[in-house]
Design a protein that fits this description.
Binding site for L-glutamine: 49-51, 110, 139-140
Number of strands: 12
InterPro entries: Class_I_gatase-like, PdxT/SNO, PdxT/SNO_CS
Order of helices and strands: EHEHEHHEHEEEEEEEEH
GO molecular function, one term: glutaminase activity
CATH superfamily: Class I glutamine amidotransferase (GATase) domain
Radius of gyration: 15 Å
Distance between the termini: 11 Å
EC number: 4.3.3.6, 3.5.1.2
Number of domains: 1
Pathway: Cofactor biosynthesis; pyridoxal 5'-phosphate biosynthesis
Shape: globular
Length: 201
């Protein structure tokens, strides 16, 4: 039996870095730009980038309805940073015309940690992932202000002015983080997601 095939939404953002991280954990990783490419994958990563631009490109490339349908059917999806925003049911401080996939019952605040110059790094422990705290990189990142029942909080900021803010969540087969594990060489979250995809198959 073949291993899982995981796509990376390749419209904008940290596409190459996620593809490399997934390949590093032994996954068949492929860019996804068209509905036919989405049909060929078992799971999907929505990368960091610019969520308003990503929202527009999802419509231009005809991917909104196909991704919505796959999420409703149980396809595992992992969103990092802008990907977290794209998976949120509610976005604060977003553009009025901004639309995501609304897969996770949570409210996120876009650019909650400030502008690009306010980007920072902090240790974050993620429940269910063995080993030391992640060296988490936050770049114009969101944080989670509220979660519905059934959404599991996996990680919080452990220090600094944003201490205790929620930055990692899971709801069923949907996973999201405010930070960028693809930028640090720490492959544990990608392995965690690959295991989730394999179990869902």
């Amino acid at each position: 039996m073949r291993g899982p095939v995981i796509g990376v939404l390749a419209l904008q953002g940290d596409v190459r870095e996620h593809l490399a991280a997934l390949t590093g954990v032994g996954v068949d990783a492929r860019p996804v730009r068209r509905p036919a490419e989405l049909d060929a994958v078992d799971g999907l990563v929505i990368p960091g980038g610019e969520s308003t631009t990503m929202s527009k490109l999802v419509d231009i490339f005809g991917l909104r309805e196909p991704v919505d349908k796959r999420i409703a059917a149980g396809m595992p999806v992992y969103g990092s940073c802008a990907g977290m925003i794209m998976l949120a049911a509610e976005v604060l401080d977003g553009r009025p015309d901004q639309r995501g996939f609304a897969g996770i019952g949570m409210t996120v605040r876009r650019n909650a940690f400030g502008r690009q110059v306010d980007s920072f790094e902090a240790p974050v422990r993620v429940a269910g992932v063995d080993g030391p705290a992640f060296h988490a990189v936050f770049i114009r990142a969101p944080w989670v202000e509220r979660v519905d029942p059934g959404v599991e909080v996996l990680g919080r900021v452990t220090g600094g002015p944003a201490v205790d803010r929620v930055v990692a969540v899971r709801q069923g087969n949907l996973l999201a983080t405010s930070f960028h594990p693809e930028l640090t060489g720490d492959l544990r979250l990608h392995r965690y997601f690959a295991d989730l995809v394999a179990a869902a198959r």
